[in-house]
Amino acid sequence: MVTKAYHIETYGCQMNVHDSEKIAGALHTLGYVQAKDAFSADVIVFNTCCIRDTAEKKILGNIGDLKHIKTHRPDVIIAIVGCMTQQKGIAEQLVKKFPFIDIILGTSNANEIADKVNEIVASRAQRRHRVVVIPRMEKPAINENEPVFRTSGTNAWVNIIYGCNNFCTYCIVPFVRGRERSRAPDVIIEEIKGLLGQGYKEITLLGQNVNSYGSDRTDGSNFAKLLAEIGQLPGKFRLRFMTSHPKDFTSEVIDVIAAFPNICNNIHLPVQSGSNAVLKAMNRKYTREKYLDIIRMIRLKMPDCGITSDIMVGFPGETDDDFRDTLALVKEVRFSNAFTFVYSPRKGTYAATLDQVPHEIKKERITELVSVQNEITKELSEQYVGGTFEVLAEDAPKENLLCGRTESGRLVSFNGPSEYVGQFLQIKVTKAKASALFGEIINGKQCE
Ligand code: 5AD
Ligand code: SF4
């Protein structure tokens, strides 16, 4: 029997990366293996994103390119799943524009891909068959015990909460991922114990807003308790989590991170804007002052904590003064790194109905913001030079070249054999270049 192969193209955030691992897991149960590329695959899956217009445009262009493959190999099965398809009316548009698509699934049922592939294969002999299933539930059930084909090396992603209740006025996520559903704490702990038993050295907890973990449950669970429970698990491993929302970030969480050596002193805390007027219009439910208080609290307990952020420019109504407030906040906090975005109107969100900031102004603001943050990142990088840090060797991109992260989340490259991947090493940083750090192993291998 000829082995069949699949190719998954993943767009967007870590949540999607992990969802793709579950899609791959489902296809493996059918006996499919990973293909070298889309051209040699029997099933091609696009796991899509719709957070910004740029993401969507790119995906639509790439779906268009699949026509070429389908023309040469009509039996190839093409599936489009994830956030983009979950938007109102999009599945219908995709079918019309790209009639060669075989399967369209949403965000909560992408795991049904194996059944749908079987359905298509079984019906092939009779006629052209297409499957489109977009669930419209606000709170789709959590699928536990799904097969996962992990692709992230030493790190394993673990979902703790799905969906989002916040409805930031710019954001499409609550519309495509439904309301918050927290997994049971014992199920999470069991999954993590299993992963540590398999040898994973880093666990990253995933959620659109990890800090509201447990608020939809009746067992009293919350994020601080969950972190503490995981932090107590035996063995040497690192625990990370993303994404945190400032409105739900508690001092208990900071205390737990500080108390457990396994929990990395590294927090991704999107601020979005430094202007109170813009934060209010975004429905973020915190002020600039509250955000700065949290930063102070974190730094008091963990002076070396790496703090990263998401920052947006050009939200409707953002004035030059508002933008200056964002720049001032960036200079005050000195994020170790920041993801910077130009606001992009998303159909169905409130902010898309407001008067928009002209494109030229958005462009000027993003250029200035990026240059200010780059300068800060560079200065902070230089402070690492000469210091020795514990680094988890995560990957070997070239022969005798390894890379990994410090606890604070900074990427370091250094020479070493690929057998060291998965080991905790003591690395002396010798050089910094923009956000990249370079170093050398000292002391051989460190504790296991
Ligand atoms: N336009 C630009 N950036 C956005 N983000 C979310 N929605 C939009 C949008 N409509 C950014 C936010 C969020 C990150 C994941 O993407 O900064 O934190
Ligand atoms: Fe979007 Fe806000 Fe929810 Fe984050 S918290 S996913 S930005 S609505």
**Percent helix:** 25-40%
What is the CA-atom radius of gyration, in angstroms?
A: 23 Å
CATH topology of the domain at 5-133: Rossmann fold
Sheet with the most strands?
6 strands, parallel
How much of the polypeptide forms β-strand, as a percent range? 15-25%
Strand order of the largest sheet: 2-1-3-4-5-6
Backbone shape: globular
Give a count of the beta strands, DSSP E runs of length 2 or more.
19
**Which molecules are bound besides the chains?**
5'-deoxyadenosine, iron/sulfur cluster
The SS-based structural class is: alpha/beta
The CATH class of the domain at 5-133: Alpha Beta
> Low-confidence segments, ≥5 residues, pLDDT <50?
none
- Write out the CATH superfamily name of the domain at 5-133: Methylthiotransferase, N-terminal domain
Q: What's the rounded overall pLDDT mean? A: 95
The CATH architecture of the domain at 5-133 is 3-Layer(aba) Sandwich
Can you put this structure into words, describing what you see?
With 448 residues, the chain is of the alpha/beta class. Among the domains are: 5-133, Methylthiotransferase, N-terminal domain (Rossmann fold, 3-Layer(aba) Sandwich), CATH 3.40.50; 152-264, 2-Layer Sandwich (Transcription Regulator spoIIAA), CATH 3.30.750.210; 388-446, OB fold (Dihydrolipoamide Acetyltransferase, E2P), CATH 2.40.50. The chain is 35% helix and 23% strand. The protein has a 6-stranded parallel sheet with strand order 2-1-3-4-5-6, with helices on both faces. Strands 15-16-17-19-18 form a 5-stranded mixed barrel. A hairpin with a 4-residue loop joins β16 and β17 (411-415). α8 (223-231) runs parallel beside α9. It is globular and about 65 Å long. It binds 5'-deoxyadenosine and iron/sulfur cluster. Residues 164, 166-168, 171, 173-174, 208-209, 245 line the site of iron/sulfur cluster (SF4).
